[in-house]
Design goal:
This is Fructosamine kinase. This protein has 9 helices and 10 strands. By secondary structure, it is an alpha+beta fold. It is globular.
């Protein structure tokens, strides 16, 4: 994927993204629109889109501030509360065969989170890892026991889906979210991703979130379970150390 900044004759500044992965531009455009519809967080407006090209508003960066972090935490809680038709549901108009980064990600609705998470967010990446000669028996054990470690049942949340620090942009008017892998899922997954590589003022973000939409008891202990998805994605994309981290997360998830 390539990204270029362009200033238009009318003074607007846009980001032009080129991605040849089938359906990637359509998935991103649909995800941005779905997140925007919630009216909870800032996302760049989609100016145009075709099979390979996406043009969106450009976000000018500024230092992260505690006030912006707290606003973001409250907004993220509202975004999740906007809901989704089912776990695994794609954004309206979005493809079933989507992407998270350069890894494939299928948005297939399921009836309950534990069985859907095992079937569509753990097992496909275990197979891809195995194809690369990477064996992850601890993760496979978690897949068989998600029911026992999933915690209280939750309604499907409207997830950004790839909420690592690089997709959280700080600007003079607050936080903007980019590059979603949006789908219906468990809200703790987005929060776990924020912890994966760190995020400025993360404690303030989480405190404001929890104040707006209290998290179920034990959510911190369930973080390794939710981290399995991004760690498996990174394993199939980059291998090595991420496989070790996925195994460590799996063992922590089983310990609870």
């Amino acid at each position: 994927m390539t990204v270029a900044r362009e200033e238009r004759p009318d003074g607007t500044v846009v980001a032009i993204k080129h991605n040849t992965d089938p359906g990637a531009a359509a998935a991103e455009a649909a995800g941005l629109g779905w997140l925007a519809d919630a009216g909870a967080v800032r996302v760049p407006a989609v100016r145009s889109q075709d099979d390979e090209w996406l043009v969106i508003d450009y976000v000018t960066s500024a230092p992260a501030t505690p006030a912006a972090a707290e606003e973001f935490g409250r907004g993220l809680a509202r975004l999740h509360a906007a809901g989704a038709p089912a776990f695994g549901s794609p954004p309206p108009g979005g493809p079933v065969d989507a992407w998270i980064g350069r890894a494939p990600m299928r948005n297939v609705p399921g009836e309950d989170w534990p069985s859907w998470y095992a079937a569509h967010r753990i097992e496909p990446y275990l197979r891809l890892a195995a194809d690369q000669g990477i064996s992850l028996p601890d993760v496979a054990r978690v897949s068989d026991r998600v029911d026992s470690v999933a915690g209280p049942a939750e309604s499907p949340a409207r997830l950004h889906g790839d909420l690592w620090n690089g997709n959280v942009l700080w600007s003079a008017d607050g936080v903007w979210l980019i590059d979603p892998a949006a789908h219906g899922g468990h809200r703790e997954t987005d929060l776990a991703m924020l912890h994966l590589f760190g995020c400025p003022h993360l404690e303030r973000i989480v405190a404001a979130y929890d104040e707006t939409a209290p998290l179920a008891d034990g959510w911190q202990a369930r973080r390794p379970l939710h981290l399995l998805f991004p760690l498996l994605v990174h394993t199939v994309l980059f291998g090595g150390g991420y496989a070790r981290q996925a195994s460590e997360a799996a063992r922590a998830a089983l310990r609870g």
